[in-house]
Every structure is written in C-alpha cells, then in structure tokens.
Amino acid sequence: MRALPVILAAFFLGLVTSIPARAEFSDWKALYQKSIEAAQNGDFETAIKGLDRVQEETGPNPAVVFNLALANAKAGNLIKSAMLFRLYLVMMPEAPNAQAVRDEIARVDQEIAKGETELFRRALAAAAEFPDMPEDPQSFQDPKKVSLFKSIEWRAREVGNKIIVEEARKRAREAADAVGYDYSPSERDHLFRDNLDDVGDIIAIIEDHERYEDPKDFWKSLQAGVIDLGHYFPHIAGTWLPAVPAATFADDEYRRNDLVRLALSAGRNDPFAREQRWHKNIVYLTENDLRDKVLDGRPQSEWKALAEEILAHDPGSPEAWAALSSSKKALKHILETGGNPFNPLGQWYDTLTVARMSLMVGNFDGIRRSRNQVVKLSGKENDFAGMTDLLHHTAKGNIGAALSQIAKRDHDWGDGWQNSIDIQFARTAKTAAVFLIEKGAFEDARKMLAEGVLAREVPPLLARIADKLEAEGKTGEADALRTDAEDLAAEIRGNWKPASDKHLKAVQRWQTAGKNYGFASDNVGSIERNVASALDTEHCYSDTKAECIINSLYFSAKAWGDARMTIRSLEKIDPETAVWLDPQQRLALKHKREAAWRAAQSLAADYKAQNRKTAPGQSRQEAEEAERLMELAGSQPAGDRAGRLKTYTRAADLKSTAAIIALIDLYDPAQDDLSEWEVMDHVADGLERGDEVVYERVISGFRTWPEPLRKELQSLLHDASYYDGTIDGIMGPNTRRAIDEYFGKS
C-alpha cells in the first residue's frame, strides 16, 4: 500500500505566479498556508476550519480538497474524509497519487465500519451498567434494561450491523433472565429494508420489491428513496421520477410536495410538477427563480410576467413585490410572517434580499427602507445595516464608501455565524458588482470584484465585462480581460480544469453530496466528539441521564451506519464516476442499475394498467383519452401556453381531474386566453360529479386564487341557488357551506 503524504504544502499543480497580487475579500492564499502549517503541527481542527473557508472561496481545487480530506482523516472525521477523498478522485482520476488515495479510501471505509461498531458497543456497555429492574405490570412494557438493549438491536438492524444485532440480543436475554422476565425477541427483518429509503438506495428497494407484501408499501418506499437520493444527487434522482407513477403519491401531500420540489429543482419538464408548482409549500422555488433572474441583471422582459404570475398565486411574495419595486409591501410581509425561532437571522436575510433586488431594479428607496427594517429587527447598527449601506453607496456611485463597509464588517460573530455573515457580505458585493457592470461602470465593478466578491465568482464576472467591452467595439481590451479572467480562474483552481462539461457536473455532484447534513453533521464526527456529546446531558429529556447517554451513543452509531450505506447508494447510482472502485465493480454496478431501471419501468407500467382510475362520471374511454392528452401536454414546451391550454381544455372536457387543476393554475387575469368562467365551469362540473380531488383543491386553494376566479365560483353557486351572500371573493362560512352542499349533492 502506498503511503499518503502528511500534507500537500502547495497547490497540487503549482501556483500561477504571473498574476499580480491584489486586494481581496479574504486573503484566502494566506489562510491556506496557515491551515497547512496548522496541519503540519498537528492542529487539525484549526486546519479544517481554515481549509473549509478556503474551499468556500476557491470552489473545486484538488489540493484544497485533498488536504481537507487528509486533515479530517487525521482528526478522526472519517465520514467527511471518505467523501472528500472520493471527490478528489472524481476531480483527478489520473492523479499521480491516485492509487494511494484509493488505498486510503479503502482504509477509511474499514475504519468507518469499525467506528460504527465501537459506538454501538459503547452504548451496549452503558446499557449494561443500567440497574436490573423487574417488569412493571402496569406498563405493559419490557423491563427498562431489556428495552434499552432492544433499541440498540433495532438500530443495528436498520444499518445491517449483524455483529451488534447478535450481541444486543444476547444482552437482552441476559437482562431478562436476571429479573425472571419471559423475553421473546422478534426478528424485525423488515427494519433494514425499511431503512433503505432513508439512505436513498433505490436500486436495493427495486431489487427487493417482491418482499413487500403490500404494493403500496413498495411505492411509498421507492418514493421516499428517490426523495432522499435527491438530497445528494438531485439531478440523477430526478431522472428516476418517471419510474414512480404520480398516482402513487398524489394522496400524500408531504411526499407529493417533496417529489414535485425534486422535479422542479432537477429541471425536469414534468407535467405533474408543472401542475403542482403553485402549491403554497412549493411556490418558493419559483420565487427563488425570480430572485436569481433579477439579481443576475436580466432585463425586465425576462421576469416581469413571472413576478406578476407569482403574485396571482401568492399575494404576499416579498420577492415578487421587490422585483416590481414595491419594497414597502415586500418588507411588510416579512415582518408580518414572523421569524424562524431556529434561525433568528432569517428575517434579516430576507430583508437584505429585498435591498439587493431593489438595487437591481433601480428602487433605491427600497434600500433605505430595508436598512431601517434590519436596524429595527436587530435593535442596533450591525453588519446587515452595513450591507445595505454598501448597496446605497453603490447606487450613488460612491465606490470608496461602499468598499469601506466591507473593511468595517464585524469579525466577532463567533464560529457558528461568522462564515455565514462573510458569505452574505460577499453576495451583497456581487450584487453591487453586477449592478455596476450592467450600468457600464466597469472600473468600479472591477474594484468591487477585487475586494468584495468570493474568489471563485470573480472570473465569470470579469468575462462578462469583457463581453460588454467587445460589444462596444473595444476588442483588444476585451481580449486582455478575458485572458486575465482565465489566468485568475486557473490560479483559484490550482490549474485544475475539468475534462468536459460532463466531468464538471460529476465534480459538482459529489461536491454537493459531500456537504449534505448526513455527511457533515456532528453525529458523524469523530468518535471522541460523539462520546463527548453523549456525556453532555444538560438538555436530557429521558427519565434518567444514563438513558440519554445510551440513546445518544446508539443514535450516533446509526448515523455512522446510515452514512456508510448512503455512500454505497451513491456508488450504485453513479458508478461511472466511482473511479476508486475497480473496473469490474463499476461495470457490475452499472448493470445492476440498468436492470433496476428496467424493472422499475415495468412495475410502473403494471401499476398504471392495474390502477387506472376513472374520475366520477368519467367513462373508461374518456379516462384513456384524457390520460393521452395529459401526456401530450407534458411533452409540449413550457413556453407554448396556447398549445398547453388547448390540450388541457380538451382533457378537462373529458372530466380529467388533473386537467381541471392545471387550468386553475394556468389562469392569469392579465391574459385574455382563458376566462374565469371557463375555468370555474370545469371546477363546478367536477364538484357536481363528486370529484374529491377537485373539492380538496377548491377548499385548500380558494384563498390563494386570483380574485376573478373566487368571485366567479361564488356567482356559479349563487346561480345554482346554493349561495346567497355577497360576491366578494372571500371564503367565509356561507361560501364554505355552499361549496360543501354543492359537492355533497352528488
């Protein structure tokens, strides 16, 4: 086995020395060297903290990733190091030290399995110290000590740790015998299978589908597995959505929302997702899209209609109001909705977003209002006020004053918040830089980029300036700036370049996965940290502190097991990039994945054939034709509104529930291609036929509909003699009663 170096002192491919020194938001090169020195001196925690910050600045850089992996391994953070070493090989499959890294991955993987077992055994040892107490006949539960061993056994079963399962069962029997309790352990074989969805192992779920006694349990497990895989590899998970029929999750709102969210974030043109995207729990994704377009300096013609459409569904959207220069309404909504008690800075972040968007749309008064609000929220002048000042001075053209806000930022937020605050400052400076670029103030923009923006985000913005210069006919200046941008990008990445766009996406995929909570939380830190956390019983809510310690230990052990299983799941689903495995393993995993895909497609087709439902009052022939039309609508371009409206209307005429809901979502009072009476005529027909899905959508969505739709439904109910109140578009008791009675008559 080849030995790994203690640490790589310089960037793996060498520093680019031709780039002149310049002022920067953070001196990441100096921080890199300090982190290396800390690692060489055995201070791995300091090294990790510094290298994490450097990675935030540089993005993918093989030397930073490698050294961060090595420092984590030395500190005992085995799971994080396992993911970082894998990321390094995804980036550099032909690296000179590739074999040594493969050997290190194998060693770390073995240590993870050992660490998991050690944590379980510490839980067993702690449980063994618990006093023997007889069964309480009033509780109908196992004696406490037996129960503790059973809990450890079950957690071990979930992660397939057979050694601990046997040890825990033996201890439970001994504890039962000590108090004369008749203990009959249950096999609980399903626990491992049930845990497959938590670790995103959709391949194993599909392979094991015949062991699910109820097909509904299989589909629920596969749904959850796709969702959890999406936390790590969203775009890959999104490609498996067609293998999960929408009908299998339409009745579960939370799971439906998760799957629709996954489809939208993965960029899939999925008809079911398009129909659901305006749901109150998902609309934030569209708001994020609007925000990003505005902050990127896109012309108003690319996002104004989207902002208006958002307000038609979510009248309180801060992003939409900020985009349309109504900062007062945006800020008022942020105050009225209240903050998240788990993130006291949430309202401050949202208010800052309004300020950033206000700069981009030229609403400078919105910046002033935002500043007043963050001061009101915090009760003092702080960094968030400083960020709004940066935006204000940028708007006024006073770049010196704007940059001074960066230099004055507070460095005493503490480890828990400092990095987050620094990132917010860098994002705010990036917004200022984009504003200056679009304004044509290129020199000021370059100053802002040099001193305020994260290093990895500077090259593409310099290239953007170059494009603007070329459009002005300044070809020579543009070419020189592009060269500077390319050289800077090379310096930041340590001269690493992806071989292709596909290679870059693979790197980004594994980088995203490695940052997931499942690989980065304290529960999967070093064994020493997990034990220390278990012994800290200040916030113990169990009957005794001993139980808190035991519970914490086996919870950490299971977290290690889950992480171990998740890594295997990712390798199964993406074997092409798992270059640490030998070629035969990768080929076998690829064949398994392809077989699972074929099986899933077949199971989905069987499900549709066996469970094709007709809506109330709909014939089988109408249902089949409506399904064909809905599939056609899913293949039509998202921008082809006229074509989709025509298709959905034809399907709604055939009593398609999904088409009726789609028409509700497509209705836009600002456009004259779909009237409110056309939509409500189909809705009323669905209610009259007793369509429960249409009824639920009316009850849950009425308040968020555009006013003309709400009033039209009241008018229809009035004409049918079910409603005699005011046509005001308000869901009061009379309106609700009229809807219920109209639906109930079926």
Terminal Cα separation, in Å? 75 Å
Structural class: mainly alpha
What is the count of helical runs? 37
Shape: globular
What fraction strand? under 5%
Total of domains: 3
If you compute it from the alpha carbons, what radius of gyration comes out, rounded to the nearest whole angstrom? 29 Å
Name the average pLDDT: 88
Measured as a percent range, the helix fraction is 55-70%
Query: How many runs of DSSP E, i.e. beta strands?
Result: 0
Low-confidence stretches: 1-23
Describe this structure in words.
There is one protein chain. By secondary structure, this protein is mainly alpha-helical. α6 runs parallel beside α29 (545-573). The chain is globular and about 75 Å long. The chain is built from 37 helices and no strands. The chain folds into 3 domains: 109-278 and 516-611, no CATH class; 292-453, no CATH class; 620-744, no CATH class. The longest helix is centred in the first third of the chain and has 31 residues, at 98-128.
